[in-house]
Amino acid sequence: MDLSLSVIEGSFGRALLRVHRNWLVNTEHVRELTVESGERMLFVGASLEGKAGVHVPVARERAGIVRERLIELK
Description:
The structure is a single chain. With 74 residues, the chain is of the alpha+beta class. The chain has a single domain, classed as PH-domain like, CATH 2.30.29. It has two helices and five strands; from the N terminus they run H-E-E-E-E-E-H. The strands form two sheets. Strands 3-4-5 form a three-stranded antiparallel sheet, covered by helices on one side. The longest helix has 11 residues.
């Protein structure tokens, strides 16, 4: 598949959130936003069923948007 992340993001609407130039995340699977050594990271995918998750970097210029969007979802 040769689609840009912008096209994919547009196709899914608000279900996906661009958090970095190379990363889109499904907001339903975001578990935590942290700051580690000055870098903002999202922990995505862990669930009560014990499934593994992944730490995803958040670009500095997107940090405010990401934080606001996560607060909206609460």
